[in-house]
Amino acid sequence: MVSFTVEDQDGNRQKIEAPDDMGLSLMEILKAYEYPILATCGGMALCATCHIEVLKGEEELGIATDVELDQLENLPEYYSTSRLACQVRISTLLEGSIIKLRGEDN
Ligand code: FES
Hints:
It is built from three helices and five strands, in the order ββαβααββ. It is of the alpha+beta class. It has one domain: Beta-grasp domain (Ubiquitin-like (UB roll)).
Protein backbone atom coordinates (compact mmCIF):
# COMPACT_ATOMS: atom_id res chain seq x y z
CA MET A 1 0.00 0.00 0.00
CA VAL A 2 1.06 3.53 -0.66
CA SER A 3 -0.27 6.58 1.15
CA PHE A 4 -0.52 10.14 -0.05
CA THR A 5 -2.59 13.26 0.56
CA VAL A 6 -5.37 14.61 -1.63
CA GLU A 7 -6.57 18.21 -1.47
CA ASP A 8 -10.01 18.80 -2.94
CA GLN A 9 -11.28 21.88 -4.76
CA ASP A 10 -12.27 23.44 -1.41
CA GLY A 11 -8.83 22.96 0.12
CA ASN A 12 -9.79 20.05 2.37
CA ARG A 13 -7.00 17.51 2.72
CA GLN A 14 -7.37 13.79 3.29
CA LYS A 15 -4.73 11.09 3.53
CA ILE A 16 -5.62 8.12 1.41
CA GLU A 17 -4.16 4.68 0.86
CA ALA A 18 -4.08 2.70 -2.33
CA PRO A 19 -2.73 -0.67 -3.43
CA ASP A 20 0.43 -0.26 -5.50
CA ASP A 21 0.38 -3.74 -7.00
CA MET A 22 -2.81 -3.69 -9.07
CA GLY A 23 -1.85 -1.42 -11.92
CA LEU A 24 -4.51 1.13 -11.00
CA SER A 25 -4.36 4.74 -12.05
CA LEU A 26 -4.59 7.65 -9.67
CA MET A 27 -7.85 8.62 -11.38
CA GLU A 28 -9.39 5.24 -10.52
CA ILE A 29 -8.39 5.60 -6.87
CA LEU A 30 -9.72 9.16 -6.66
CA LYS A 31 -13.06 7.97 -8.03
CA ALA A 32 -13.07 5.05 -5.61
CA TYR A 33 -12.73 7.60 -2.81
CA GLU A 34 -15.72 9.41 -4.36
CA TYR A 35 -13.90 12.53 -5.39
CA PRO A 36 -15.94 14.39 -8.01
CA ILE A 37 -13.89 13.55 -11.09
CA LEU A 38 -15.80 13.18 -14.32
CA ALA A 39 -13.21 11.14 -16.23
CA THR A 40 -15.53 11.20 -19.22
CA CYS A 41 -12.97 9.58 -21.52
CA GLY A 42 -12.50 6.67 -19.14
CA GLY A 43 -8.79 7.23 -18.70
CA MET A 44 -7.75 7.64 -22.33
CA ALA A 45 -6.02 11.01 -21.80
CA LEU A 46 -8.65 12.69 -23.96
CA CYS A 47 -10.85 14.79 -21.66
CA ALA A 48 -8.54 16.39 -19.04
CA THR A 49 -11.34 16.31 -16.46
CA CYS A 50 -8.96 14.33 -14.22
CA HIS A 51 -6.53 17.26 -14.08
CA ILE A 52 -4.47 17.35 -10.89
CA GLU A 53 -1.62 19.47 -9.66
CA VAL A 54 1.23 17.82 -7.79
CA LEU A 55 1.93 20.04 -4.77
CA LYS A 56 4.58 17.76 -3.28
CA GLY A 57 6.43 14.83 -4.80
CA GLU A 58 6.82 16.18 -8.32
CA GLU A 59 10.43 15.03 -8.49
CA GLU A 60 9.39 11.44 -7.88
CA LEU A 61 6.33 11.55 -10.11
CA GLY A 62 7.93 13.40 -12.98
CA ILE A 63 6.42 15.90 -15.34
CA ALA A 64 3.52 15.48 -17.73
CA THR A 65 4.17 13.41 -20.83
CA ASP A 66 3.53 14.77 -24.33
CA VAL A 67 0.20 12.93 -24.40
CA GLU A 68 -0.86 14.69 -21.21
CA LEU A 69 0.41 18.06 -22.36
CA ASP A 70 -1.70 17.84 -25.51
CA GLN A 71 -4.78 17.90 -23.26
CA LEU A 72 -3.48 20.16 -20.49
CA GLU A 73 -2.61 22.88 -22.98
CA ASN A 74 -6.28 23.09 -23.98
CA LEU A 75 -7.32 24.00 -20.43
CA PRO A 76 -7.81 27.63 -19.43
CA GLU A 77 -5.23 27.13 -16.71
CA TYR A 78 -2.60 24.54 -15.92
CA TYR A 79 0.54 24.44 -13.81
CA SER A 80 4.14 23.35 -14.16
CA THR A 81 3.38 20.24 -12.12
CA SER A 82 -0.03 19.52 -13.65
CA ARG A 83 -0.76 15.91 -14.59
CA LEU A 84 -3.68 13.86 -15.78
CA ALA A 85 -4.58 11.52 -12.93
CA CYS A 86 -5.52 8.79 -15.39
CA GLN A 87 -1.93 8.74 -16.66
CA VAL A 88 -0.35 8.42 -13.19
CA ARG A 89 0.03 4.81 -12.04
CA ILE A 90 -0.34 4.03 -8.37
CA SER A 91 3.17 3.16 -7.29
CA THR A 92 5.57 3.76 -4.44
CA LEU A 93 6.58 6.98 -6.26
CA LEU A 94 3.36 8.46 -4.84
CA GLU A 95 4.32 7.81 -1.21
CA GLY A 96 4.08 11.02 0.81
CA SER A 97 3.04 13.18 -2.12
CA ILE A 98 0.32 15.82 -2.04
CA ILE A 99 -2.13 15.98 -4.94
CA LYS A 100 -4.56 18.84 -5.57
CA LEU A 101 -7.68 18.27 -7.64
CA ARG A 102 -7.93 20.73 -10.51
CA GLY A 103 -10.42 19.06 -12.79
CA GLU A 104 -14.05 19.88 -13.32
CA ASP A 105 -16.18 18.87 -10.37
CA ASN A 106 -19.61 18.53 -11.90
S1 FES B 1 -9.92 10.56 -17.52
FE1 FES B 1 -10.00 11.69 -19.35
S2 FES B 1 -8.05 12.57 -19.47
FE2 FES B 1 -7.96 11.42 -17.65
